[in-house]
């Protein structure tokens, strides 16, 4: 069976809601997904990665017992509705100032309790507690005691009824503020957190974060800390870009007693810590089991500082899914970035990940050739699904044959999905409109723009296996690849209004170059210690059913 990954980009609630529609189109639990969508694809996926707003989506689904977008939509008007974002996160009670005051009082108490227990706090702690009420409304105080590692004990996870979820954040070295393509990229999964990058190349058990360790062993023998891996905190870690939004708590637009409360628990957090999540004690302190090129700035510090996973301008969490050890055949890259002046994607995330393989952190990565962002826009590749890396024989100069990338950008169909990243409240109708438009963006308008799109996705899914077996595909697949695969055409005429994403431009130094640049990579990555890189989805019956549909359409199998 082909091994499938899905990567959900950042972009605030826009990415969460539009991405939800795209995910819903792949889920056979969604009404109409089997007739007008890619139903069953999600059931056949092995990995599901999220970053920032995309991680709000993936974490919501995974840590609500693998609920479906359909179930969330069906429960929209209920008092305990998931994603009830009709009011800003700053004023969750709307005109009910007492509800808002009570909420922030609880958040203040929760964050203070962490500090009283001896742990460092930052705005990420506040942000995580605030977010959690929207994602886990049925849990006491938004899941104040709910931990990331809890998922590995859930039946839906143990029985492989869901993909393996991954959250992505960037490392920031102590005393620095700049994030670029050579930043250390961290992943969180239900078992571990750590990095595949050469600057660390190590993982630690996520359950025991907060334990004071030296060289991976507890300083106090036999004593470990549990509970640091709060689900809201880790979810917030991947989206610390929004910490600046919390600074508005001091706004005079809030009732005075709420503003005073905000000032009280934000007053001790310095400006240069606004965008970080603090992981201390540092789980990698004084580790001597790392490779020789590990960065001393990580292992010598008492603190591990992590920031929003998109701050290196790789706003689609592709790197964890590109690891050769994970052996993926295909990745569906859902891009809900706001790269243009009008808040549409322009392909910059793909370009930056392509370029990373030629930097020191990407020595062990392979990513298929992609064009520059001007070409993305000029050829309209940012407005419809496009396949990259279709022909493995053209990729032999790379470190290894990478997965085929199915790029699915946010585009307008039935609703204006290009909402601002910092739009922090949506009415019920807006919420449903965003989800519906995302469904349509990932299905060529429910196949109205191309009735063969489902079959073409099937061709893409089995492409790597077909080429490795030197098998022959039917003519229909050849037509699909002609229509959807980027053929190498470049049109780099300058386009105005692009390259203006949510993150610092410091990371996008190469975003205009795309495949026009070349470089070399070397040194195979050793196993990073993640015992679960080969996690395999055992529940393949549904996906086999999808391939059977494709067989009926094109005679593929």
From TrEMBL:
Location relative to the cell: Membrane
Any Gene Ontology biological process: glycerophospholipid catabolic process
Keyword Cytoplasm: no
Domain PLA2c as annotated: residue spans: 1-491
Gene Ontology cellular component terms for the protein in this record: cytosol; endoplasmic reticulum; extracellular region; plasma membrane; side of membrane
PROSITE patterns referenced in this protein's UniProt entry, alphabetically: PLA2C
Gene Ontology molecular functions: phosphatidylcholine lysophospholipase activity; phospholipase A2 activity
Catalysis performed (reactions): a 1-acyl-sn-glycero-3-phosphocholine + H2O = sn-glycerol 3-phosphocholine + a fatty acid + H(+)
Pfam families cross-referenced by the UniProt entry: PLA2_B
Topological relation to the membrane, as annotated: Lipid-anchor; GPI-anchor
Entries under SUPFAM superfamilies matching the protein: FabD/lysophospholipase-like
Top-level EC class: hydrolase
Main subcellular location: membrane
Family, similarity comment: Belongs to the lysophospholipase family.
Protein name as annotated: Lysophospholipase
Source species: Saccharomyces cerevisiae x Saccharomyces kudriavzevii (strain VIN7)
């Amino acid at each position: 069976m082909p091994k499938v990954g899905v990567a959900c980009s950042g972009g605030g609630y826009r990415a969460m809601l539009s991405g939800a529609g795209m995910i819903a189109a792949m889920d056979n639990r969604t009404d109409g997904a089997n007739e007008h969508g890619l139903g069953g694809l999600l059931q056949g996926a092995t990995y599901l990665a999220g970053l920032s707003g995309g991680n709000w989506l993936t974490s919501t689904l995974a840590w609500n017992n693998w609920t479906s977008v359909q179930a969330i939509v069906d429960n929209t008007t209920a008092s305990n509705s998931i994603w009830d974002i009709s009011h800003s996160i700053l004023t969750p009670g709307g005109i009910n100032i007492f509800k808002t005051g009570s909420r922030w009082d609880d958040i203040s108490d929760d964050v203070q309790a962490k500090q009283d227990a001896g742990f460092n706090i930052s705005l990420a702690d506040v942000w995580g507690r605030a977010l959690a009420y929207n994602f886990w409304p049925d849990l006491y105080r938004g899941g104040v005691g709910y931990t990331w590692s809890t998922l590995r004990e859930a039946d839906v996870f143990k029985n492989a009824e869901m993909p393996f979820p991954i959250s992505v954040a960037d490392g920031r070295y102590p005393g620095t503020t700049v994030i670029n393509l050579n930043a250390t990229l961290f992943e969180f999964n239900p078992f571990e957190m750590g990095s595949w990058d050469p600057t660390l190349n190590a993982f630690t058990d996520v359950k025991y974060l907060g334990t004071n360790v030296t060289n991976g062993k507890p300083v106090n023998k036999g004593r470990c800390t549990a509970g640091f891996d709060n689900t809201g905190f880790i979810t917030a870690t991947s989206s610390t870009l929004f910490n600046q939004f919390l600074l508005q708590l001091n706004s005079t637009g809030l009732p005075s007693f709420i503003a005073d409360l905000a000032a009280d628990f934000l007053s001790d957090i310095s400006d240069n810590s606004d965008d970080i999540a603090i992981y201390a004690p540092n789980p990698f302190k004084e580790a001597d089991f790392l490779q020789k090129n590990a960065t001393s700035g990580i292992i010598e510090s008492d603190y591990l500082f992590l920031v929003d996973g998109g701050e290196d301008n790789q706003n689609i969490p592709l790197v964890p899914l590109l690891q050769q050890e994970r052996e993926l055949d295909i990745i569906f890259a859902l891009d809900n970035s706001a790269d243009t002046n009008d808040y549409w994607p322009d392909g910059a995330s793909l370009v930056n990940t392509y370029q990373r393989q030629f930097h020191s952190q990407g020595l062990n990565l392979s990513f298929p050739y992609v064009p520059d962002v001007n070409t993305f826009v000029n050829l309209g590749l940012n407005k419809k699904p496009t396949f990259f890396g279709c022909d493995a024989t053209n990729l032999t100069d790379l470190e290894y044959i990478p997965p085929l990338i199915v790029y699915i950008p946010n585009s307008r169909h039935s609703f204006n999905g290009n909402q601002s990243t910092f739009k922090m409240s949506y009415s019920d109708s807006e919420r449903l409109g965003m989800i519906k438009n995302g469904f349509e963006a990932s299905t060529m308008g429910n196949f109205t723009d191309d009735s063969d799109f489902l079959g073409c996705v099937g061709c893409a899914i089995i492409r790597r296996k077909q080429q490795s077996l030197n098998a022959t595909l039917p003519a229909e697949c050849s037509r699909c690849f002609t229509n959807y695969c980027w053929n190498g055409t470049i049109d780099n005429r300058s386009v105005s209004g692009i390259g203006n994403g949510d993150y610092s431009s410091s990371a996008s130094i190469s975003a205009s170059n795309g495949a026009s640049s070349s470089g070399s990579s070397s040194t195979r990555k050793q196993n990073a210690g993640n015992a679960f890189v080969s996690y395999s989805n055992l529940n393949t019956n549904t996906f086999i059913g999808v391939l059977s549909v494709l067989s009926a359409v094109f005679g593929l199998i």
